[in-house]
Design a protein that fits this description.
The protein is an alpha/beta fold. Helices cover 40% and strands 16% of the residues. The mean pLDDT is 95.
Length: 209
């Protein structure tokens, strides 16, 4: 049986903070479901933004030598993606946005039809806005979005505070279960000869007349 793998991105600068706590809840579910998961820490160091050089359109890799290209390769080989972020000024962490901009611009064509989920942690507000930002990377790349039993978020004001948010952690676990279920459905479909649809390309509307 094919090994199913999920790539997890932690956009928090705190490797053991609230965002990581939610990801660990998902990892437990994936392990129980027999699904392998791998975590990449995105927010722990500086991440350069896209320079708009366009070189990746020819090579498929980013010219900036950091972990973005590693993440592109790992997701291309994996079956699904989870992106988790703390909320900074009602938006995902800046380092994560810079990372995703380059990751999806250089490698987005390799991610089509891989299920994806966004998850946010916050003290109080900005979670739904942050989820909306991350989900846009998925929808433009033809990645099915995984839902849960509430919006994908957990609350806490200080490190590990989210351990007290029973509903938020429950939401994280249910998200992982839903992703595991869909991944198995996709594998079953492939075995039955069902292939992903072919996308139309070539039509570009020019609004400047």
């Amino acid at each position: 049986m094919k090994e199913i793998r999920v790539l997890l991105l932690n956009g928090s600068p705190r490797a053991n903070g609230n965002t990581a706590l939610a990801l660990r809840e998902m990892e437990k579910v994936f392990a129980a479901e027999g699904i392998e998961s791998e975590l990449i820490e995105v927010g722990a160091g500086p991440v350069s933004g896209c320079t708009a050089c366009g070189a990746c359109k020819k090579t498929g890799v980013c010219v900036i030598g950091d972990r973005v290209n590693e993440a592109i390769e790992k997701l291309a080989a994996a079956d699904a993606l989870v992106v988790a972020t703390p909320v900074h000024y009602a938006s995902p962490a800046g380092a994560l946005i810079a990372f995703l901009d380059r990751m999806f611009y250089a490698g987005g064509s390799k991610f089509a039809h891989k299920p994806a989920a966004a998850f946010a942690s916050a003290r109080r507000a900005g979670t739904t806005a942050s989820l909306d930002v991350i989900n846009k990377y998925f929808t433009i790349s033809q990645m099915p979005i995984i839902s849960s039993t509430y919006w994908n978020m957990v609350y806490g004001s200080c490190q590990a505070d989210a351990a007290q948010d029973a509903e938020g952690l429950q939401t994280a676990r249910n998200l992982a279960r839903n992703m595991a279920w869909l991944l198995r459905c996709i594998e079953a479909g492939k075995k039955s000869g069902i292939e992903p649809p072919k996308s139309e390309r070539g039509n570009v509307t020019n609004f400047i007349k």
